[in-house]
Write a structure and sequence with these properties.
The protein is mostly helical. It has 14 helices and ten strands. The chain is globular and about 70 Å long.
Length: 461
């Protein structure tokens, strides 16, 4: 492996590890706000118990996200100096906006959110929860602005090989940004929905069937059932936008080699890039044309259109994009079936406890299904941009550092070992917290009066 490939794998490993945690914190902050508002409105202790458990998960995920994000940012200098040299005038301010408008907001109010519920007035604790949730969303906004601009760059001009901003409004609201932002926020919501449902199911199977577990299980399944059809629609809109601006990516996603009409939808195939054809195809006639153009005889771009007369391939590697896209869609379909079946059972029998034990067992591994779908979608969109780092402006080969391949390989192995250890520890702690949650001493909270801090009352027994 050469330096370019090793550097791409290293950055891919770093961002794959990092994205797991913001995917949780973005939506979990809003779910915590929902729990808090329900407690404020009803005074029912189950909502505060749910808040107290899941705020621990939020804190752990937030810390992991911050640390892994710092490590990832170093690679702009160590592995990809050409990126900042060429587009730093645009990327630098956008990253600075994220720190100033989002990270500082989260950092200031996170302490109140985590430790202030019995030390500050109830309204202030609720406000802190809202501001932290808002901060995580703003952080996602700015990061996705930069990422979207790299896919569909607008509002700049090149001077002596360096990009200069000419229209910040066009940069921020570039053509793919709204679709990418909505798609990612919904992905975060689904990740958290199934995380909450999965660990609530785990607690239920262990005999912890308290009202807070019931509330968490119902909240997670209802949230998943509502968001998954919206995500399917948003994904379709995002795909149409990608077809317009990055047709080579769509061609790789569909495994389509020749531009044609009445293109079938491939459920399975083995793309052979050397022979430039697919093997062992299982397809639905006219499916790809119908989905992408909403017409059975619509034209779908082919990969062979993106090979220069000199034989230079200007489309992404086909197999990773093709398979990652199908993993994402398949995981989404599993989410749809599980959430809708569970909600139907709960609605008919009016009780979370009516869910069959086999269904609860399935929910436990599905707790991490959001991670699988998010990573598969991320690989689809990022590998699908190759060979470009900034579409039409900068290739990955132009941006990579001139570092000996063994150096990159050594640090890659170190990164992978550390990330495997940290991820194992993170998952272990989540299960430990869930197993311990029903065994500890229960702390009762009374509803605070206006302007009064939430008081702690130890049960008489």
């Amino acid at each position: 492996m050469d330096t370019l490939l090793l550097s791409r794998i290293q950055f891919g490993a770093n961002i794959s590890f990092h994205i797991l945690f913001p995917t949780i914190t973005i939506a979990l902050g809003w779910v915590l706000l929902f729990f808090k508002l329900r407690f404020n409105a009803t005074g029912e202790i189950k909502w505060m118990d749910a808040y107290r458990f899941w705020v621990k998960v939020f804190a752990l995920s937030f810390a992991m996200g911050v640390v892994s994000g710092i490590t990832m940012s170093f690679q702009f200098g160590t592995n990809w100096p050409g990126f900042m040299e060429t587009v730093g005038n645009i990327a630098g301010p956008l990253l600075a906006y994220e720190i100033m408008t989002a990270f500082f907001l989260e950092a200031v109010f996170l302490g109140i959110m985590l430790f202030g519920f019995s030390r500050v007035p109830g309204w202030l604790h609720t406000l802190a929860t809202f501001l932290v949730a808002f901060g995580t969303t703003m952080s996602a906004f700015w990061i996705l602005v930069l990422n979207s601009w790299m896919h569909t760059p607008e509002g700049f001009e090149m001077r002596n090989g360096v990009a200069f901003a000419t229209d910040w409004w066009a940069i921020i609201f570039n053509p793919s940004m709204p679709y990418r932002l909505v798609h990612m926020l919904l992905a975060s919501g689904l990740t958290v929905a199934f995380l909450i449902a999965g660990f609530s199911a785990f607690r239920w199977l262990r005999g912890d069937q308290g009202r807070d577990v019931r509330a968490g299980l119902k909240t997670g399944l209802m949230l998943g059932a509502v968001l998954i059809p919206i995500q399917i629609f948003a994904g379709d809109m995002h795909g149409l936008n990608t077809l317009k601006y990055q047709p080579q990516k769509v061609a790789a996603m569909e495994g389509n080699w020749e531009t044609d009409t009445n293109v079938p939808l491939l459920l399975f195939a083995i793309p052979d890039e050397e022979a430039r054809e697919n093997r062992m195809e299982i397809a639905i006639p006219n499916g790809a044309s119908l989905i992408l153009t909403h017409k059975a005889d619509g034209e779908v771009p082919g990969l062979n259109d993106f090979v220069t007369p000199e034989g230079e391939v200007m489309h992404p590697p086909v197999a990773p994009v093709f398979y990652a896209f199908r993993i994402m869609v398949g995981t989404g379909m599993a989410m749809l079936l599980l959430s809708w079946a569970s909600v139907a059972i709960m609605a008919r029998r009016r009780d979370v406890g009516a869910l069959p034990r086999p269904m609860l067992f399935v929910m436990v591994p599905m707790a991490f299904s959001g991670w699988v779908a998010t990573l598969a979608g991320w690989y689809t969109t990022e590998i699908g941009r190759q060979p470009w780092l900034v579409q039409g402006v900068l290739t990955t080969e132009m941006a990579v550092a001139d570092v000996p391949a063994p150096f990159v390989g050594t640090t890659l192995v170190a990164y992978l070992a550390i990330y495997a250890l940290l991820l194992s520890a993170y998952v272990f702690v989540l299960f430990y917290l869930a197993a311990k949650a029903g065994k500890g001493e229960q702390i009762r909270l009374r509803v605070p009066q206006p302007g009064e801090a939430i008081a702690r009352q130890v049960p008489a027994e």
